[in-house]
Amino acid sequence: MKLAVLLVIVACTAAVVAEEDTPVATVFTAQQAEAGRSAYAKNCASCHMPDLSGNAEIPALTGSTFTGTWRRKTTKDLRDYMSAAMPYGGPSLEPDLYTVITAYVLQSNGAVAGEEKFTASTAVSIGEVIRKESEGGN
């Protein structure tokens, strides 16, 4: 019995270590996220707050509620939603701004920059980009 319990503990520990060792998909560059930080500050922070925390009427763009909503959708879904709906009640932004703002939002939720540039057609599961739920912003 003790051996069986020990084997279960070892198997569970190995699964957790394997999950942590699994490479996270990288879909944007550090330069894109930095450009996104500036574009966000200029175009989004007045509603979604400078720290992406939202308020009672505007949804947060970081944390467990954000990741819970977007985890099973793709990076393209997020960018397309932003492009179609934001800024609410205002004129559309340039297409490249939606791309870099998406990179910044992903980074603010724990995604890691890589070598590959994010594009309007990049479609990777946000759950693959953000492995663990983020409890706060960057």
The CA-CA distance between the termini, in Å, is 46 Å
Look up the CATH topology. Answer: Cytochrome Bc1 Complex, Chain D, domain 2
The parts where pLDDT drops under 50 for at least 5 residues are: 13-19, 133-138
Rg, rounded, reads 18 Å
CATH class: Mainly Alpha
Largest sheet: none
Helix content: 40-55%
SSE order, one letter for each helix or strand = HHHHHHH
Structural class: mainly alpha
Short précis:
With 138 residues, the protein is mostly helical.
Can you put this structure into words, describing what you see?
The chain is globular. Helix 2 packs across helix 6 (95-108) and helix 5 packs across helix 6. The longest helix has 20 residues, at 2-21. With 138 residues, it is an all-alpha fold. It has one domain (25-129): Cytochrome c-like domain (Cytochrome Bc1 Complex, Chain D, domain 2, Orthogonal Bundle). It is built from seven helices and no strands. The protein has helices spanning 2-21, 30-43, 45-48, 64-70, 75-85, 95-108, 126-129. The chain is 54% helix and 0% strand.
Sum up the structure in keywords.
Cytochrome Bc1 Complex, Chain D, domain 2, disordered C terminus, 138 residues, 0% strand, mainly alpha
Topology summary:
Elements: H1 2-21, H2 30-43, H3 45-48, H4 64-70, H5 75-85, H6 95-108, H7 126-129
Helix pairs in contact: 2-6, 5-6
